[in-house]
Amino acid sequence: MNAWSVGRGWRKARKKKYNMDVETIRIGVIGAGSWGTALAHLLGDKGFSVDLWVYEPAVKQNIVENRENRMFLPGIRLPETVVPSNDLASVASGKQIVLFVVPSHVMRQVSGQASGHIDSASLVVTASKGIENQTHLTMTGVLKETLPDALVSRISVLSGPSFATEVAKRLPTVVTVASGDAEAAAYLQRIFSTPYFRVYTNDDLIGVELGGAVKNVIAIASGIVDGLGLGQNTRAALITRGLTEIRRLGIHLGANPHTFAGLAGMGDLLLTCTGSLSRNHTVGEKIGEGKGLNEILAEMNMVAEGVKTSKSVYNLSRKLEVDMPICHSVYKVLYEDLSATEAVYQLMTRDLKDEMLDVR
């Protein structure tokens, strides 16, 4: 076990129900984008045997030959414990933990294909952030529809402020794992934790997922503000009111309001709205500078989840009659040709309200 192992305390945790022996735990990571590769790197670095499902044959070959995912996570050498594969069935089968880290719009297809190969005793974790366009389901909702009934109660969520590149460089990062099973959450907490990757537990799956998904829409808005050169006052207001919208939707769907003051809420929102590595902020910034959405997306080789999620949030909030003016403005800028400057003007000239009454 290497220097980043969690130490003796990790081995003492709940041995009766879950296997805590690093030498026998096998983990399947489904998705080799930047975040999936970073998590495979973290787990492999701890000594776990990790099979990494890679969609692109060329990316798999690159990892085999160079021990590096130069397409999505360049400059990071993967340990020999991480084995890339294009065979989804083999990556999903025979694992104690199966971790889904695919773009939200392909979660249904990929999880459906993997479904019959996942052991009924496996723990399933999603680290994907998004809301499905057609059904308005979060990723756990999609998994509950595609996986066998025996696995539904074994689904957890890993989320929080975490740029893949910084995690892969072992920079201190703090996230949360949410599960309806406190023992499963504690087990996964120890599986993922290292001295540079601190994991808290949470029992609010829907709140953690909504925070991770909707913050990408607000991050596009934040990028637009920066692209327009509107200043830090504007961005601070945008982030604050954006959090109000996330919380408002979350409460309507049964989330714990305290979740949105934590890592999966304010923490992830701040990072994605202000960090230079944020793909969603980058999309918004280029829109604010005058570029078209299709042109922006054509220049990117990774997914900006907020682009698709903005459509889901717009339609879901309208169906539920939840007031989310910032998210609605982002949708109209992306899909209805509303100009960025006009969107800002409309937001600033809405009816005046009491702030404390308006948080609900």
CATH fold-level topology of the largest domain:
Rossmann fold
The overall pLDDT, averaged over residues, is 93
State the CATH class of the largest domain. Answer: Alpha Beta
Share of helix among residues? 40-55%
Order of helices and strands: HEHEHEEEHEHEHHEHEHEHHHHHHHH
| Low-pLDDT residue spans | 1-15
Explain what the structure shows.
The chain folds into two domains: 8-203, NAD(P)-binding Rossmann-like Domain (Rossmann fold, 3-Layer(aba) Sandwich); 207-359, N-(1-d-carboxylethyl)-l-norvaline Dehydrogenase, domain 2 (Orthogonal Bundle), CATH 1.10.1040.10. It is 49% helix and 13% strand. The protein has helices spanning 8-11, 34-45, 57-66, 88-92, 107-115, 139-146, 149-152, 164-168, 182-192, 205-227, 232-252, 263-274, 279-288, 293-298, 305-320, 325-335, 340-348; strands at 26-30, 49-53, 68-69, 73-77, 82-85, 97-100, 123-126, 155-159, 173-178, 197-202. An eight-stranded mixed β-sheet has the order 5-2-1-6-7-8-9-10, with helices on both faces. Helix 10 (205-227) crosses helix 15 and helix 10 (205-227) crosses helix 16 (325-335). The longest helix has 23 residues, at 205-227. The radius of gyration is 20 Å and the shape is globular. The N and C termini lie far apart (49 Å).
